[in-house]
């Protein structure tokens, strides 16, 4: 991030004064601190000054502090980055004066001199400046945190992706993450600050855009030795469109293109899952399967055309889906055959009632190419509360029941429906 250089009256450099004890706890600040950095005394007093200094400067600051304490009446100078109240970093020359030997007021007086032009010969500043400027050109949100999850830097893009301004911690920055993904986010932060690189995807609620999906790449940052984790950088991308595309591809792969019902493989998987989820004898409930075969469907295709046949299939599918609960499944096995799966059905009698209700629903008159027709179907029902029952055998039982129904209701071949 580029340094901030406040305007000063008469061209003089702004100077801030802090009083600290020997442990670096801030005991007092002057009015210039609020004017230049935006911090009020109550924000700073009682806290360690190191909390407000850039983590990359910590090692140098601590080494300088040790030398200062060993030199009564001495002073130490170095350049550091200090945060202002908006979270941005300001470059200062810091001059610490050791007055700890004073008989009545043992303190360290710190002068913070706001720097003017910073020479590009200052390699550390230039590298940081260059990298932070680079992040502003990237199409992804960037967040840098220290090992305590406190915010060090974020680019403007991140504010747009998350829909919130700079906050002091990663927890606050990602408070929009939906509840079901909050644990995933916390675990990822724990992992990256433990030295592991992590890639996750989470949902969040954007104040302007609503529900979004974001990809988050978390990469650990270490000291020069590579052994000590000093923080992490997070790259955040809005992947809502990609996530929706993936879901649509999954939906298409699992559903019949004409009717929108589950396709053959998916409805068989749903039945297998429903049966395996059953624990026989616990509450007496079981799984019902209803096999549906439309009567005289071939006549519709032959006499009115395949487009009319497609309309009929879609209409029947809509009627079947209207009978299903959220927990139920409706699939098209192929051609004019459908299979419905009803988990949690109380009894075989209740399953038979479902079959009768479905037959009545299918048999409502409809208009097809200007002609009123009354669809009909042969319906077979199977029910089981045995969690070990084989899905193939279960379907075969429903199929056999359907053919028995078809034989009982077989009528003359003429006519449409």
Describe how the helices and strands are arranged.
Elements: E1 15-20, E2 26-29, H1 31-37, H2 41-44, H3 58-69, E3 75-83, E4 89-99, E5 107-114, H4 123-135, E6 141-146, E7 151-154, H5 156-162, H6 170-173, H7 179-192, E8 198-206, E9 210-222, E10 229-238, H8 240-254, H9 264-277, E11 286-294, H10 297-304, H11 306-323, E12 329-334, E13 337-345, H12 348-362, E14 366-368, E15 371-373, E16 377-384, H13 391-409
Antiparallel strand pairs: 1-2, 1-5, 3-4, 4-5, 6-7, 6-10, 8-9, 9-10, 11-13, 11-16, 12-13, 14-15
Helix pairs in contact: 10-11, 11-12
What features would you describe in this structure?
The protein has helices spanning 31-37, 41-44, 58-69, 123-135, 156-162, 170-173, 179-192, 240-254, 264-277, 297-304, 306-323, 348-362, 391-409; strands at residues 15-20, 26-29, 75-83, 89-99, 107-114, 141-146, 151-154, 198-206, 210-222, 229-238, 286-294, 329-334, 337-345, 366-368, 371-373, 377-384. It has 417 residues and is α+β, with helices and mostly antiparallel strands. It has a five-stranded antiparallel β-sheet. Strands 7-6-10-9-8 form a five-stranded antiparallel β-sheet, sandwiched between helices. A four-stranded antiparallel β-sheet has the order 12-13-11-16, sandwiched between helices. Residues 1-12 and 117-121 have low confidence and may be disordered.
């Amino acid at each position: 991030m580029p340094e901030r250089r406040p305007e000063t009256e008469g061209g003089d450099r702004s100077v801030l004064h802090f009083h600290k004890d020997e442990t670096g706890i801030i005991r007092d600040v002057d009015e210039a601190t609020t004017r230049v950095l935006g911090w009020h005394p109550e924000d700073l007093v009682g806290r360690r000054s190191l909390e407000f200094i850039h983590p990359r400067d910590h090692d140098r600051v601590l080494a300088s502090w040790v030398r200062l304490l060993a030199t009564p009446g001495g002073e130490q100078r170095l350049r550091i980055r200090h945060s202002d109240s908006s979270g941005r970093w300001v470059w200062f020359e810091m001059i610490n004066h050791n007055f700890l030997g004073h008989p009545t007021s043992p303190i360290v007086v710190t002068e913070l001199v706001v720097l003017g032009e910073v020479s590009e010969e200052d390699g550390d500043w230039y590298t940081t400046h260059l990298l932070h400027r680079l992040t502003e050109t990237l199409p992804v949100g960037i967040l840098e945190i220290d090992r305590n999850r406190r915010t060090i830097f974020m680019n403007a893009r991140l504010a747009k992706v998350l829909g919130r301004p700079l906050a002091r911690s990663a927890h606050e920055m990602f408070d929009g993450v939906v509840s079901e993904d909050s644990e995933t986010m916390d675990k990822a932060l724990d992992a990256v600050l433990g030295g592991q690189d992590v890639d996750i995807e989470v949902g969040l609620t954007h104040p302007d855009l609503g529900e979004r999906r974001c990809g988050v790449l978390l990469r650990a940052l270490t000291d020069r030795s590579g052994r000590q984790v000093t923080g992490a950088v997070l790259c955040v991308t809005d992947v809502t469109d990609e996530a929706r595309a993936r879901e649509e591809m999954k939906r298409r792969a699992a559903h019949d293109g004409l009717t929108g019902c589950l396709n053959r493989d998916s409805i068989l998987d749903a039945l297998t899952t429903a049966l395996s989820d059953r624990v026989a004898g616990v509450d007496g409930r079981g799984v019902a399967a209803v096999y549906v075969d439309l009567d005289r469907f071939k006549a519709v295709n032959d006499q009115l055309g395949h487009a009319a046949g497609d309309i009929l299939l879609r209409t029947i599918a809509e009627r079947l889906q209207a009978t299903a609960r959220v927990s139920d499944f409706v699939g098209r096995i192929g051609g004019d055959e459908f299979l419905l799966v009803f988990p949690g059905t109380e009894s075989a009698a209740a399953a038979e009632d479902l079959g009768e209700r479905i037959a009545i629903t299918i048999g409502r008159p409809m208009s097809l190419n200007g002609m009123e027709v009354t669809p009909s179907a042969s319906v077979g029902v199977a029910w089981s509360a045995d969690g070990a029952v084989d899905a193939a055998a279960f379907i075969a039982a429903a199929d056999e029941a359907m053919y028995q129904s078809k034989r009982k209701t077989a009528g003359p071949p003429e006519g449409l429906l």
